[in-house]
């Protein structure tokens, strides 16, 4: 191993040892905004890399970052895009000011960074170039994209070095994971990434997991289901480094006693208006429900590419007086819509594990959703909600009707059971503490075994 790599590894081991002395007692389930008991990661310097940040559907990333900072960690935010995104949440607007954007000034700064890296570290540059070429061979995107990802990595590395970052974490196993790997090959810190699915898993053969998984310090999966799907595409010897780290919700959902379900007839569906969320099937089902229960109401909280299609379907079904579309709303407004509902209904056709289900359960609202991906890990039929076959309008009608016909006291018991379950599994402070321990821990033997970084050893 080269001298500079030996020194870097020694420094990382020394830092992780000191951090473990104060960070290993953070496994208890907690509530509120306080960090997990005993979790003090002062001195831990990490960076987060996301394709677009902030984003209305990425509140879980913001919560994760802020939880790490409450534990004392310093978090550098890096995103490719998002500086000009319209966001409804004030906290997202604040995050825009804290984030460095690699594409904000166009491609020329990236090209300049690549040339400087070539002159500064030619061996490492060509090792990373070789990896980018390998990624392009199985990718759906042509070679120029992967060369741009290499330029992003060249641009990001000096920022991480200036800020003393010792670990880089990417969200999503798409191009952020590739960029993080290329940063590592250029001589940057260890990296990890969170796999959410379904986009990553659906295109797993084109994601480059054969390169990004073995070279990572660890991989986080948001559910056991997501981990199992990643295991289908990762070498068996890497399975022990695929960790389940749930997306989490913060103290506003656990603070104090949440209002219990009232005997109201309004459902809410929260999410982007798109094919995978199943809103068209929901409208068809709701038309039958409202015919039997004229007082029933439905709120579609969100916006997206299918809004016009949904509005046309609402008009065709003649249910315009019973359905409301909110457009994009803030986290506080989502909370208000959930509290104003009898239940959350999310008839998704494709999912990872929706954060809004966690939010609804924390607010003591039963959930109606589908038997797909990680949802059955959280929603237990008859205990805290209803689960139906995905795509079945008839079963959706049955579940929504059953919810309307269930007396309020059993609904409240379901809400309480849901709150208990989500608090135990999805407190952001507990989940962020898991990540902090993994960031600070020494690199495992599995992640360091021969073959993981062959192109670096041969050409670095």
Give the C-level CATH assignment of the largest domain: Alpha Beta
Q: Beta-strand percentage?
A: 5-15%
CATH topology of the largest domain: Rossmann fold
Strand arrangement in the largest pleated sheet: 3-2-1-4-5-6-7
Q: Got a strand count?
A: 13
Helix content: 40-55%
- Report the biggest beta sheet as strand number plus sense, adding barrel if it closes: 7 strands, parallel
Main structural class: alpha/beta
Proper CATH architecture of the largest domain: 3-Layer(aba) Sandwich
Give the overall shape: elongated
Which consecutive residue ranges, at least 5 long each, have pLDDT under 50? 1-35, 448-460
Radius of gyration: 23 Å
Count of domains? 2
CATH H-level superfamily title of the largest domain:
Glycogen Phosphorylase B
> For the terminal residues, how far apart are their CA atoms?
10 Å
Mean pLDDT: 88
Helix segment tally:
19
Descriptors:
alpha/beta; disordered C terminus; 19 helices; Rossmann fold; six-stranded parallel sheet; elongated; 460 residues; 48% helix
Describe the structure.
This protein is α/β, with parallel strands linked by helices and 460 residues long. It is 48% helix and 13% strand. It has 19 helices and 13 strands. The strands form two sheets. Strands 3-2-1-4-5-6-7 form a seven-stranded parallel β-sheet, sandwiched between helices. It has a six-stranded parallel β-sheet with strand order 10-9-8-11-12-13, with helices on both faces. α6 packs across α7. The radius of gyration is 23 Å and the shape is elongated. The N and C termini lie close together (10 Å).
């Amino acid at each position: 191993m080269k001298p500079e790599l030996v020194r870097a590894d020694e420094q990382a081991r020394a830092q992780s040892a000191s951090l473990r002395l104060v960070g290993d007692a953070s496994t208890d389930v907690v509530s509120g905004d306080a960090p997990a008991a005993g979790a003090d990661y002062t001195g831990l310097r990490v960076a987060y890399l996301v394709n677009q940040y902030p984003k209305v559907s990425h509140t879980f990333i913001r919560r994760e970052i802020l939880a790490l900072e409450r534990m004392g960690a310093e978090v550098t935010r890096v995103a490719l895009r998002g500086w000009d995104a319209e966001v409804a949440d004030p906290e997202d607007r604040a995050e825009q000011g804290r984030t460095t954007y690699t594409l904000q000034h166009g491609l020329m700064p990236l090209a300049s960074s690549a040339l400087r890296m070539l002159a500064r570290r030619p061996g490492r540059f060509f090792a990373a170039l070789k990896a980018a070429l390998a990624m392009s061979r199985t990718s759906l995107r042509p070679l120029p994209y992967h060369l741009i990802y290499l330029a992003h990595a060249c641009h990001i590395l000096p920022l991480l070095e200036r800020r003393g970052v010792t670990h880089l974490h990417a969200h999503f196993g798409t191009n952020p994971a590739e960029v993080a790997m290329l940063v590592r090959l250029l001589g940057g810190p260890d990296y990890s990434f969170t796999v959410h699915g379904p986009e990553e898993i659906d295109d797993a053969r084109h994601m480059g997991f054969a390169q990004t998984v073995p070279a990572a310090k660890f991989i986080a999966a948001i559910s056991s289901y997501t981990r199992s799907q990643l295991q289908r595409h990762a070498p068996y010897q890497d399975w022990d480094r695929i960790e389940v780290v749930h997306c989490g919700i913060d103290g506003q959902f656990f603070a104090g006693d949440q209002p219990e379900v009232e005997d109201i007839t309004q459902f809410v569906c929260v999410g982007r208006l798109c094919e995978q969320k199943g809103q068209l099937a929901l409208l068809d089902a709701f038309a039958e429900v409202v015919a039997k229960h004229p007082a029933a109401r439905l709120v579609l909280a969100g916006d997206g590419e299918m809004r016009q299609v949904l509005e046309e379907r609402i008009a065709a079904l003649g249910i315009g007086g019973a359905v409301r579309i909110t457009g994009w709303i803030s986290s506080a407004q989502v909370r208000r819509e959930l509290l104003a509902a009898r239940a959350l209904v999310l008839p998704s056709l494709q999912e990872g594990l929706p954060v809004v289900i966690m939010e609804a359960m924390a607010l003591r609202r039963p959930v109606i959703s589908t038997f797909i991906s990680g949802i059955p890990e959280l929603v237990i039929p008859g205990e805290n909600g209803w689960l139906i076959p995905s795509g079945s309008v008839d079963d959706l009608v049955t579940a929504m009707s059953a919810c309307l016909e269930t007396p309020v006291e059993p609904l409240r018991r379901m809400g309480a059971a849901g709150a208990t379950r989500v608090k135990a599994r999805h407190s952001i402070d507990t989940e962020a503490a898991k990540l902090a321990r993994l960031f600070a821990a020494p690199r495992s033997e599995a992640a360091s075994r021969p073959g993981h970084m062959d192109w670096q050893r041969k050409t670095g």
